[in-house]
Amino acid sequence: MTLRVGIVGAGIHGTRYLRHLEHDAPGLAPAALCRRDPRAGQELGAGLGIPWFASYEDLIDHPGVDSVIVATPPASHFAIAARALAAGKPVLVEKPMTGTLAEARRLATLAAAPGAPLLMVAQTLRWNPVLQRVRSLWPRLGRVHLVRFAQRLAPTALTWQREPAETVGGSVLLTGVHGFDLVRWLTGREFRRMDSRQRQVLNPVVEDLFLARAELDDGCWVSCEVSKFTQSQACWLEAVGEAGQIWADYLDGGLVLRCGREEFRETVDARSPTLPSVLDAWRDAIERERPAPVTAVDGLRTLEVADACYRSQRRGGAVGLEL
Length: 323
Hints:
Blueprint: E1 3-8, H1 12-23, E2 28-34, H2 38-48, E3 52-53, H3 56-61, E4 67-70, H4 77-86, E5 91-94, H5 101-111, E6 119-122, H6 129-137, E7 144-152, H7 171-187, E8 191-199, E9 209-216, E10 221-227, E11 234-241, E12 245-249, E13 255-259, E14 262-266, H8 275-288, H9 296-315, E15 319-320
Parallel strand pairs: 1-2, 1-4, 2-3, 4-5, 5-6, 7-10
Antiparallel strand pairs: 7-11, 8-9, 8-15, 9-10, 11-12, 12-13, 13-14
Helix pairs in contact: 4-5, 5-9, 7-9
């Protein structure tokens, strides 16, 4: 059986989903799209042979749509995902799961209700080949006491990320959640304390630089950085354990594992797209009636960390997570 998918938010990222649904996602097919720009939406729909809708409500209610992907700015995620769940249609929602912690709590409650359709959060780094290899090597590190990650990216080209009415957060919320989820996924631990500072370098509306020091529930320290103002790129992760340490480049590929005096280098390609794997995992969970690989609770946990970062900035010191 082929699941017919409606895309809400067929902009740059939503169009990527449509392309993969058309060519790289067995068992899934694009069925409808919603885009704010009527002309662009109609042209895109005509090219794919699927209808364009001006409102997400009409797309969700359309009988030709079995499931929904939410690829809009985060401020709208809750309303769209909640409507789809109420309509009985499985949801794949882009990260962050919602724009605020309060919305994340409400959506997690809706997703946990008896009989609720599956909701999955598209934390795509879990399917990055380099990071999957890191996870397989993680037991060789022994007890880990320090994790560091950094994402250094060019300034955003997306207009909505510079619009106060649409942007509910900057580098912490839009990119930091990648790292927060990654740390949870690799360590199996939860964040308990956060000390964060943020700064606007080039973005006039929200932070495009943040640094944070965190502590996990087992005492492990975590160092977090996201820079979105440089004309260069870098994405790396480092972990130091009692038995070894690892460094990984999850943008260009490759990793280094050191255990004692031995060093192991691996060339792992990080350039392959992750969305086909995300879509396969979503479809498989729906068909087999299994929990999503990235659940609403996972999405909620990343929003708790992001909220703690913002509270820490306001307070000017470390804060505990509000769990």
